[in-house]
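Please check what follows.
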Amino acid sequence: METADAAPDTELVLRLTETALAAVTDLRDAEDDADALALRVEITGVRGADFTYDLSFEPVAKADADDSVTVQEGLTVWIPAGSIDRLRGATLDVPSREGQGGLVLRNPNRPDPLGMDGEIELTGTVEERVVQLLDGHINPALASHGGSAALVKVEGSAAHITMGGGCQGCAISAMTLRDGIQAAILARVPEITEVVDETDHGAGENPFYTSDPYS
């Protein structure tokens, strides 16, 4: 069960379940100057396919104007500005397994596997912009894993992409295409609403689509 008591028109970036709220409030109340403290939750980096986090009690007076500061049932929750978008929609809970201590942060957001943050300037036709994005930004990221991606064609609002090198047959290339390449193209080339994988993954060094030799 979730609970929230934020001020009207104030976005609640991170919600605490009732059990997590009780546990965190008990911990805060044991601190000196508890009433002046907020639970500060910040994304500090990336480990594998997930973010890493830092949770601490800090004086809420230190929060900057563009940080998110909300109150949930008497507990002040502080999210630094740089973590707001990547924590939006997350829930702080206690583990579901009985006897397991600590807290669990369930975040629907995932790191960009290509590490492409910020604005990218693209010019020209739809095809030219997709190629610029692939050649100038996506492929340098894929190159560190020996992979590459190329535009086959643009058909309607769909960009047809093929993946080569280390990405061909790679067991995580579907995630790379969905969470990385597709997300980057859809975000930066608005005419494209779908990315189609044209790769023959069965021909790669480590194919994960294989035919049954006995069929």
